[in-house]
Specification:
By secondary structure, this protein is of the alpha/beta class. The chain is built from 15 helices and 18 strands. The longest helix is centred in the first third of the chain and has 26 residues. It binds nicotinamide-adenine-dinucleotide. The site of nicotinamide-adenine-dinucleotide has 28 residues, from α7 and α8.
């Protein structure tokens, strides 16, 4: 069998892991600072160019959704890392009198980060920041679908890091599979639930721990107490950032039946106020990443329409540059693929309910979403939705903003993900919480060593009874 093409790189990092793992907080922060400077200053305009080429991202969107999440995460970690790495004392039960206990986070070791194409810089360098903070060596495998950004990140990584510490390999599925055959100590994967299962299966061969940041159908629920104008403005912004190719974008809307017409009109108003009537010419509107995804989205729309769905707005497209107009669809039902698969594009089905119980039926027929949004000013309505659904994250009266609060864990549940990222939670994911006990002087256990006499039997019985 031919040797794994990444074995040597992997072994180099494996041999170097203790050097990296024993680096001080100061040294880890130095690495993070150099990455921050490269993103914020040295390579900033090249990052803008690469994302324009890959996803037609505007400079503003690149700054806000690719650069800022990484640089703000670095700032956050710099403030808190000193505290996180400290040993934390833990209580010791009286039965272990004579000993003390504590925990300390240690690096997992050699980590693999596999990232998707939709926020290629953010979702590659974001986890990298957490892995560096925790003291690991890291191999990055970004998506082949955003080649300009992946090539640029490779240049940046080579410029900033020794490959025994951080390396980036470009490549397609085969590259990812070679990497997945290696016994990494941790695998951090961001992508689809289908590939997440492949990653978890490969990880099982080595019992590598995994973080899976996946996707799903994230609903937005609106009741009659919500401010409809504000809701439409916020939801349309959240849906159309990055042309809808956002894991936590609202996938579909469920709204009280008699609000449908007013809400749809407000959504149209919001779309045109953000992107004008000539959306295709707007500098602020992105494109679908490639022909495959463009065709997938067109098929979702066509299939829904052929089964009776109505296009309330949009529906136009241009194959030449993967443009799909923001599209609002009504009269959808659960038989349609658009209501079963994650949409991941600028298409928003708006379905209706008469009674609140229909909302729960609709949401709970799908697997647990990554995000669930409720737009309402009625506490009882919000509480009922929250208590009777499950989701990775929830925002009330807004969407998307949860991603950039580094105080909160970010991630899904089951089909939408396993494990959490960001801030302390990201640091923890790349660390092993090692438990320690130290024996200072003779403990009770030493009075009950064999041979077991009558006296020792009594001590054991007293221990069971009293400790
Ligand atoms: P994907 O799963 O197709 O690909 C992700 C990565 O996996 C890429 O680097 C790709 O090369 C690799 N890959 C693809 N097939 C593979 C295989 N068979 N074996 C091993 N590796 C393989 O996902 P995508 O299309 O790049 O991204 C879209 C998905 O990612 C959506 O489902 C979205 O919701 C999800 N996502 C989740 C988050 C999150 O934070 N939870 C963020 C962004 C995207």
């Amino acid at each position: 069998m031919p040797e794994n093409p990444f074995l040597q790189l992997f072994q180099k990092q494996q041999q170097h892991q203790y050097v990296v793992g024993n680096t001080s907080v100061k040294e880890r922060i130095r690495k993070l600072n150099s990455l921050k400077k490269a993103i914020e200053v040295t390579y900033r305009s090249k990052i803008h160019e690469a994302l324009k080429k890959d996803l037609n991202k505007s400079i503003t969107e690149t700054d806000l959704t690719e650069i800022y999440p990484v640089t703000s995460e670095i700032k956050f970690i710099k403030k808190h890392l000193w505290h996180w790495v400290k040993k934390q004392s833990a209580p010791t039960p009286l039965s272990f009198f004579g000993a003390s206990s504590y925990t300390k986070f240690e690096p997992k070791g050699v980590c693999l980060i596999i990232s998707p194409w939709n926020f290629p810089l953010n979702l590659t360098f974001g986890p990298l920041v957490s892995a560096i903070a925790a003291g690991n060596t890291i191999i990055l495998k970004p998506s082949e679908m955003t080649p300009h950004t992946s090539a640029l990140m490779k240049t940046m990584v080579q410029d900033l890091f020794d490959d025994r510490v951080v390396a980036l390999v470009e490549g397609e599925v085969e590259t990812a599979q070679h990497l997945l055959n290696l016994p990494f100590n941790h695998i951090f994967f961001t992508g689809s639930p289908a590939v997440g299962k492949i990653v978890m299966k490969a990880a099982a061969a080595h019992l590598s721990s995994v973080t899976l940041e996946l996707g799903g159908k994230s609903p937005a629920i609106i009741d009659e107490s919500a401010n409809l104008t504000t809701t439409a403005n916020r939801l349309i912004w959240g849906k159309l950032v990055n042309c809808g190719q956002t894991c936590i974008a609202p996938d579909y809307v469920i709204i009280k039946e008699d609000l449908l017409s007013e809400f749809t009109n407000l959504c149209i108003k919001a779309i045109e106020s953000y992107y004008s009537k000539n959306i295709e010419a707007s500098n602020s509107y992105g494109r679908i990443v490639n022909q495959k995804h463009f065709q997938r989205l067109k098929n979702l729309i066509d299939e829904a329409v052929s089964q009776g769905a109505k296009i309330a707005y949009g529906g136009n497209s241009n194959t030449a540059d993967n443009y799909i107009q923001p599209t609002l669809i009504t009269s959808c039902n659960t038989e349609m693929k658009i209501m079963q698969e994650e949409i991941f594009g600028p298409v928003l089905p708006i379905i209706t309910y008469k009674d609140a119980s229909e909302i729960l039926n609709q949401i709970n027929t799908n697997l647990k979403p990554l995000a669930l949004y409720v737009f309402s000013n009625r506490k009882s309505f919000i509480d009922n939705i929250i208590k009777n659904t499950r989701a990775g994250t929830t925002v009330i009266n807004n969407n998307l903003i949860q991603f950039n609060n580094h105080h909160l864990p970010f991630g899904g549940s089951n089909n939408s993900g396993i494990g959490k990222s960001h801030g302390f939670y990201g640091f923890k994911e790349f660390s092993n919480e090692r438990a320690f006990m130290k024996q200072h002087f003779k403990g009770i256990s030493e009075f009950v060593t064999p041979p077991y006499t009558n006296l020792k039997e009594k001590i054991a019985a007293l221990t069971v009874k009293w400790f």
